[in-house]
Design a protein that fits this description.
The protein contains 33 helices and seven strands. The chain has helices at residues 3-8, 18-31, 33-37, 57-69, 73-85, 90-100, 102-109, 117-129, 136-145, 150-162, 168-173, 179-190, 196-202, 208-218, 227-230, 239-252, 262-280, 287-299, 326-342, 347-361, 382-395, 398-405, 408-417, 419-426, 431-443, 449-459, 476-486, 497-506, 524-533, 550-553, 555-560, 576-582, 592-603; strands spanning 311-312, 320-321, 466-470, 490-494, 510-516, 542-546, 564-568.
Length: 606
């Protein structure tokens, strides 16, 4: 029996006879096992389960598990108390969790006879597992522990890695002429990809030599998504910084000419800003869009403002969290600032800053307060305002359009000079944008059929969420409409696809359309195609309902169009709310307060 084998097994006491016990001890002495299993300065205590009482955290936990299985709670409790009294470090506790799994500690804590020790141990393991990452100040202390001993260096390095991007500035500041600083530099070089976002965050405040060092490090990350962050430094007044940025871009981008001129760099940044604004304005984002935003949030955790988790709270009973889009907007604002560094005199860049900041500040989009006194903002010129509005409208982002249209005087001037922008605003899928655009048309004496239809629908609108039921079966549309009425919707019941479409288009904002899978006059496919093609209903969530067997036959329609769900019959006020919640069905886009404000505002435009 060698030392390794002895460390991996336990010797159990089975009350042998004196002769057998002496022989066993003699064998252990001859193999050197006893000397390897105990400290040199003291012999471990024994009990009636083990020859040698467990004296390491791993053996104590293993012994407690075995004793509990053998119905020996007294011994198990003793082992657990020994472990707690030894005050194990966080690293040791994390190793215990890795080795035994949290389930083992949960099971021990569930045994009443092992309390309070088992419960205390579970708490210790959980706290060690969720230990907060070291701060930048703590990292400075940890850096000084590097190189003192192998164990201290390993433990300090692990903690510095756990600090993630908070460790970047202390690592950069460490004096590389000292042993500790040299090890810190090596840690930064080895794990540069892990620290890439922290390095980007440190760039703006870095001096020339540090900026060159950061750019050199970023060139080694093989992370092309960092190119947009490096791009502004390609045009730095410092020749050394510009050269380092150029080299980094050549390594990060396959195209060596990418962003080689100021004009090209601005074009690249503006294209990405437009893409982000478009994504943030989507009503029914694809799963890939949401996952991409979450990935971006992780990447930007150190370079963007904290993500706002805002809620639409029209009433005490209504609250809908809408976090989607905020990360895209924060990134767009950051890129607009970077574009201003590349070309501070570009009107397109200034317009992008106006549009992105307006979108982020008004997120999530809500009906703005419109007053008779229009406050002029001299900081934004008419041409810049027009270009910002054009960018916002082209991306179909209500959060960017509304804060611009609410500046009625500026918006009227733009509408008179650019009638196409007014028309595109009146065809927007968001009714709030359409109503503000109708107000601009009214003030600028540019009214047309689209603006009149918008005002008419708003005046006749309901403070309650509006819905439409389309069911060709006799009496069924009224029955389903009753279910939605009980859910506080104002419902229009129709028996053909065409009449249902007309009813939905006439509402202030149709928040829910229920279509039976066997639709007449217009087929189901034609009905949903027309609903999605019309600007007034393109953002209305649609539910197809019918026999469960029809779910598969409607797959093609639901795949083709976003924002379409299937619910099997029967439709009941008892089951439908839970079904919609489990399907992540969106809440009404307009709150009761917004509807009331919009109706009052529309009446002033008649």
């Amino acid at each position: 029996m060698n030392k390794t084998l002895l460390n991996s097994v336990h010797i159990f006491r089975v009350r042998p006879s004196a002769t057998v016990r002496l022989c066993t001890v003699a064998i252990l002495l001859m193999t050197g096992a006893i000397g390897a299993a105990q400290p040199e300065d003291a012999a471990p205590a024994s009990d009636d389960l083990f020859f040698f009482r467990p004296n390491t955290p791993e053996r104590q936990v293993r012994g407690a598990i075995l004793a509990e299985r053998l119905d020996r709670p007294d011994l198990a409790l003793g082992y657990l108390n020994d472990l707690i009294d030894a005050n194990p470090s966080a690293e040791q506790l994390r190793k215990l969790r890795t080795e035994f799994g949290i389930g083992a500690f949960l099971k021990l804590s569930a045994a009443p006879l092992l309390q309070p020790a088992s419960g205390e141990l579970l708490k210790m393991v959980n706290e060690a597992t969720h230990e907060p990452a070291p701060t930048a100040d703590a990292v400075e202390v940890l850096i000084q522990q590097l190189g003192r001993s192998q164990q201290q260096t390993t433990e300090a390095a692990l903690k510095i890695l756990a600090a993630e991007d908070a460790a970047v500035v202390p690592l950069l500041a460490a004096d590389r002429e000292t042993p500790q600083g040299d090890l810190a530099a090596g840690l930064l070089n080895k794990y540069v990809r892990r620290y890439r976002r922290g390095l980007v965050a440190a760039l703006p405040d870095a001096d020339e030599s540090t900026a060159v060092r950061i750019l050199t490090l970023l060139s080694q990350t093989a992370a092309p998504e960092l190119s947009l962050d490096v791009l502004p430094y390609r045009f730095s007044e410092s020749s050394e910084i510009a050269a380092a940025a150029k080299l980094a871009l050549e390594k990060l981008q396959a195209d060596p000419a990418w962003g080689s001129s100021r004009e090209q760099a601005v074009t690249v940044l503006l294209y990405e800003i437009q893409r982000l604004l478009t994504l943030a304005g989507k009503d029914f984002p694809a799963d890939s869009d949401v996952l991409a935003e979450q990935a971006l949030a992780r990447q930007l955790s150190t370079t963007s403002a904290p993500q706002k988790i805002a809620a639409v709270e029209p009433d005490a009973e209504e609250s809908a969290e809408r976090p989607y889009g905020s990360v895209y907007l924060a990134r767009a604002v950051g890129l607009a600032s970077k574009a201003a560094i590349v070309d501070p005199n570009s009107q397109a860049v200034l317009a992008a800053q106006v549009a992105t900041q307006a979108a982020e500040q008004s997120w999530p989009a809500q009906w703005p307060e419109v007053t008779d006194a229009d406050v002029e903002d001299d900081s934004i010129g008419a041409d810049t305002f027009a270009e910002a509005l054009e960018l916002a409208v082209s991306t179909k982002n209500p959060g960017a359009i509304l804060p611009l249209l609410v500046r009625q005087n500026l918006a009227v001037n733009v509408a008179q000079q650019h009638p196409k922008l007014l028309r595109e605003s009146l065809l927007c899928g968001d009714v709030r944008v359409r109503l503000l655009a109708a107000a601009v048309a009214k003030r600028g004496e540019l009214t047309n059929l689209l603006s009149r239809q918008t005002i008419k629908a708003a005046v006749a609108g309901s403070p309650q969420p509006e819905a439409v039921v389309i069911d060709s079966r006799a009496g069924e549309s009224s029955a389903v409409a009753g279910v939605l009425t009980d859910m506080n919707y104002r419902v229009a019941a129709r028996n053909t696809g065409r009449s249902g479409f007309e009813a939905a288009a006439a509402q202030l904002q149709c928040e829910l359309i229920l279509v039976h899978s066997n639709c007449l006059r217009w087929s189901l496919s034609d009905t949903i195609t027309n609903l999605r093609a019309d600007y007034r209903t393109q953002n209305s969530p649609i539910i197809i309902y019918g026999p469960a067997a029809h779910e598969e036959t409607t797959d093609t329609i639901r795949t083709r169009f976003r924002g379409v769900w299937f619910v099997p019959e029967p439709i009941s006020v008892v089951t439908l709310p839970d079904t919609l919640r489990l399907a992540n069905f969106p809440p009404p886009s307009l709150s009761t307060t917004e509807r009331q404000q919009m109706i009052r505002f529309a009446r002033t435009l008649r």
